[in-house]
Request: fold
Amino acid sequence: MKLTSLADYAVVMMAAAARHGPGARLNATMLADETGVPLPTAQKLVGRLASAGLLASARGAGGGFQLLKAASEITLADIIEAVEGPIAMTACAETARHDCALERNCQVKPHMSAVSGAVRGALASVSLATLSQGEPA
Amino acid sequence: MKLTSLADYAVVMMAAAARHGPGARLNATMLADETGVPLPTAQKLVGRLASAGLLASARGAGGGFQLLKAASEITLADIIEAVEGPIAMTACAETARHDCALERNCQVKPHMSAVSGAVRGALASVSLATLSQGEPA
DNA sequence: GGCAATCGGAACGAATCAGTCCGATTAGCT
DNA sequence: AGCTAATCGGACTGATTCGTTCCGATTGCC
Reply:
């Protein structure tokens, strides 16, 4: 019940990116330096964040990334889903996934989708704008 | 951001146990049969649940387990923590864990403990009594 | 047209997870 | 009281996923 190191790194990197302002040009090297995330790992992460639609990527010399949405419009849930995949407590909570051997008599399954939604809601209530600021209220 | 198979199994087994009523004597074999969880795995799980204080164990012939608390007093968070360990989004959210290389300049850390609390709250709001019943409202 | 810089995907090693097996403990029967 | 049978408890093995690293593909600049 904790997120992976990659997701953790991604959150830190996105927060660093948000502090550069909305339209700033960024690259993986810059973010790695600022956050302390190893460069190859940072490259992998920005790639995932870009393919999830959170960052716009430009290749070649002078390329890089920039945020596609305002920091207040990006939530913690968005970042985690971009790196880890859908937020679902159990496999059976995802639609079109029915490979659970217990599914036949499972009395718990009807509740799991609601639970997943609640957890996702808790994560979606935290915006990147909040995370990029220093101390909480 | 999803729980492990073991935690999933543990929830299903605890729900099955709750349906047997408060003081019923149970054993790993019985729960494995009812839920479909493989017996050796079920044994491992009831052991962890017992050492976490959710079940009382009795060894020897005629031994077994029983719930230590009412189903309404046991939450999903309790079960998950018994199997997976503390619910904390990041390592730095746990007190006395300071082995994060990013901690030096981490602007996100101050928020993580609040986020972990919110997720835990979402899981703690679901009681075993609810899970042991069939359909949600 | 060549060069340098940056993204993108593929491959490797490590850690954790899921599952299995065997020993320790205790009640019940003879 | 001793033995047997049944059950919990911890140790071991294989598999999957995670985390990291490296190399190739693409594009702007000189």
About this structure: The first strand of chain B starts at residue 55 and ends at 58. Chain B touches chain A through 50 residues (CB under 8 Å). The mean pLDDT of chain B is 89.
